[in-house]
Amino acid sequence: MKRLYTLVAILLIILSVAFVNQKTESKPKHNMPVVGVLTLLHHPALDQIYDGFVKEMAKQGYHKGKNYKLEYQNAQGDQSNLEIMSKKLVNMSSDILVGITTPASQSLAHATSSIPIVLGAVTNPKKAGLVANNDHPNTNISGVSDQAPVEEQLKLVKKLMPKNAKVGIIYTSNDSSAVTEHDLFVKIAKKYHVNLKSYSIANSNDLNQVSQKMLNEVDAVIVPTDNTIAGAMQTLVKNADAVRKPIFPAVDTMVKQGGLATYGINQNYLGVLIARLVVDILKGKKKIATTPIQYVRHGIPILNLKKANQLGIKIPVDFLKESIKEGEVFE
């Protein structure tokens, strides 16, 4: 009988060890930090942010696959993909998450309230419902805003266009970033006495028809930070070129695609700032809940000189020199 008790005890120990090992195996163990990145879709501006992020992580000593794992997910513009991918990144036991664009950041926020989320390309995180306060997030989210230097942009439009020119602004009505900047443009236009008329779209399918209507009624077009229009920029450029009217976009990539000029935020630099914050959080130098949203306050001058020549628009010498010296010139 004593021998039987001994065998039973040994068997229980073996089963207990096997159970513990099974539990341990069921929960992923990482020997390096896991960073999950979710973006809404591919387009040049967003791709620049991601590229700047990866390169700055390397500069900070984080090399993907060597001392940290980088999991990149692209929703290809599909909201249902965002939800699935957010859950996947959370279930991978990511140590930190990065959301590029407002929809991607919102989807990550719905998926977790504990894993730190660093957002990028979100114009107004508070208005998007991501933080309680842009200066004091008080949640598991902080990051870098891509709010454009609206006043600089509007002053540039006024400088390059004839007096009393009619200016249209087109934006996506359900994009909180675009709406925020649209409202700023409307407010500042009154200050500078710019004749500004608003046009909105619900999705990219509306852009062709709405932009054609707008271009028949205005002399120039402003595009705020707007992922939908950025993803369909060639449609807008085609319609504007057909009636020889300039586009003043928010970012450098859209100027390169056929816009005229802007004071824009360098998208690559946004990625750099995101990476620096991620590293500070991974190293314990900053706490996400007490880190204010960062802003890039001054845009760089960006000019498409080829487009200016095509449209017969004379570029002031001071802006041309500034663009050559401090910004970008596409010829």
UniProtKB/TrEMBL annotation:
Transmembrane segments: none annotated. Signal peptide: none annotated. Pfam families: ABC_sub_bind (PF04392). It comes from the Bacteria. This is ABC transporter substrate binding protein.
